[in-house]
Write a structure and sequence with these properties.
Length: 176
Amino acid sequence: MITKIASIARKQIVPLSLLVLLGGAGVTWLSVALVQPQTALAYTARVDVSLTSQTDETYENFLRRGEAVARAAAQRSFDGDILVTEVAITIVGEHNGEIAPVLLLSVSRQDWKNRPDAQYWATYFSTSKLLLNFEPPIPPPQATPDTSVAPSEPPLQPQAVPGIPPRLSPTPNSSP
């Protein structure tokens, strides 16, 4: 039994050159992975903000408040995470129980750095004012009665036809 183990130990199972090649490749890969920094993955931050109207607030004031909130959310997103390369802020408005998107602020970090203006980068939803009932709906046109007076024509009278005696309408009988 000892002789069998000794004979197996003397035989090369894996050639030495293959072992050196694989070992060298592994050491090279490990050293590169340790020295080279990880690749940063950039991404877009998406934020949805709900904004409720205040009592007697006009749509224009509501929209200005929405822009201010979007501006603050964009700045906060860029300041809070250096990997964020773009933000998409959606302002959803609520007025008298109605809910609708008001604006979308979508901008890259570089563009925001050059021009941090929410009005410039925002996309406004044109139907929001109507959907949120800030302006009363346009009533459908109502049918107006015709007040013009049509010329009155005399009632038609039976015409006498020549050669035919006129027909007399019966008169009530007077009984004696």
